[in-house]
Amino acid sequence: MSLTIVNAVLCQELDIYTYADGINLNYFSEDGEWEIQRTWNERATYTEGNYEYARVYYYFKLKRKPLYYGLNMILPVLVTALLTVFVFLLPAESGEKIGYCLTVLLAFMVILTLIAADLPTTAANTSLLGRNSLRF
C-alpha cells in the first residue's frame, strides 16, 4: 500500500525543495499493525494562469503485519470450523448432537461479533466471514 501526502505553495511567496531522498524517521515510533518499507519524496512545479506553484510529494510504502489478524480472526474461525466436524463422532443415541451443534454455532456467532467490533463500519465492504455465514 502506498500513501501520498502533497504540499503545494506559490513559488513567488515560498519555493519549496526536497532536502533528502526519503523522510527523516528519527521521531517515528513503530506501529504494531503497519511496517514502513520505503519512503521517498519528489518535487514538481506546475503553472496555473500566471502563477507557478511548487509541489512536494511525500510517499510511504507500507506493509501490513498479518500476525494480529491471523491470531485474532482467522485462527478462532478455523478452530470453530474444526469443532463442527466433531459432531459426526458423537453417537446418535447420546442426544447431544443438537446441543453440541448449537454450542458451536453460538461460539461462531460470538467470534463474528468480536471480529465485527474490530473492523471499521462500512456498507461497501463486509468481511468474507460474515458474508459466508449469511448463506446458511
From TrEMBL:
One of its GO terms (molecular function) is extracellular ligand-gated monoatomic ion channel activity. The keyword Transmembrane helix applies. This is Neuronal acetylcholine receptor subunit alpha-3. It comes from Elysia marginata. It is a multi-pass membrane protein. It comes from the Eukaryota. It is found in: Membrane. The keyword Transmembrane helix applies. CDD domains: LGIC_TM_cation. The chain crosses the membrane at residues 67-91, 97-117.
